Amino acid sequence: MEPTPEQSPHHAYPDHWEADVVLRDGGTARIRPITTDDAERLVSFYEQVSDESKYYRFFAPYPRLSARDVHRFTHHDYVDRVGLAVTIGGEFIATVRFDRINEQGRPASAPADEAEVAFLVQDAHQGRGVASALLEHIAAVARERGIRRFAAEVLPANNKMIKVFRDAGFTQQRSFEDGSVHLTLDLEPTAESLAVQRAREQRAEARSVQRLLAPGSVAVIGVGRAPGGVGRTVLRNLLGSGFTGRTYAVNTSFAAGTGTVDGVPAHRSVGEIGERVDLAVVAVPADRVPEVVADCGENGVQGLVVLSAGYAERGTEGRERQRELVRQARSYGMRIIGPNAFGIINTSGTVRLNASLAPESPKAGRIGLFTQSGAIGIAVLSGLHRRGAGLSAFISAGNRADVSGNDFLQYWYEDQDTDVALLYLESLGNPRKFTRLARRTAAVKPVVVVKGARHSGSNPPGHAVPVSRIPDATVSALMRQAGVIRVDTVTEMVDVGILLAGQPLPDGPRVAILGNSESLGLLTYDACMAEGLRPRPPRDLTTVASPQDFRDALAEALADRTCDAVIVTAIPWVGENGEAETGDGEVLAAALREAAADGPAKPVAVVHVEMGGLAQALAAAASTAAPRGTRRPAGPAAAPSPPAPAPRAEAGAAAPTATDTSAGGSSAGRIPAYPAAERAVRALAEAVRYAQWRRQAAAPGRVPEFLDDTIDEHGTAALIETLLGPSPDPRGRPLTHDEARELLARYGVTVRPALPAPDREAAVAAAEKIGYPVALKTTAPHLRHRADLGGVRLDLAGEDALRRAYDELTDLLGTPAELRPVVQAMAPRGVDTVVRAAIDAAAGAVLSFGLAGAPSELLGDTAHRLVPATDRDAAELIRSIKAAPVLFGWRGAAPADTAALEELLLRVSRLVDDHPEVVSVALEPVVVATHGLTVLGASVRLAPPPARSDLGPRRLPSY
Question: N or C terminus: which one in the chain shows less Cβ crowding within 10 Å?
Answer without folding.
Answer: N
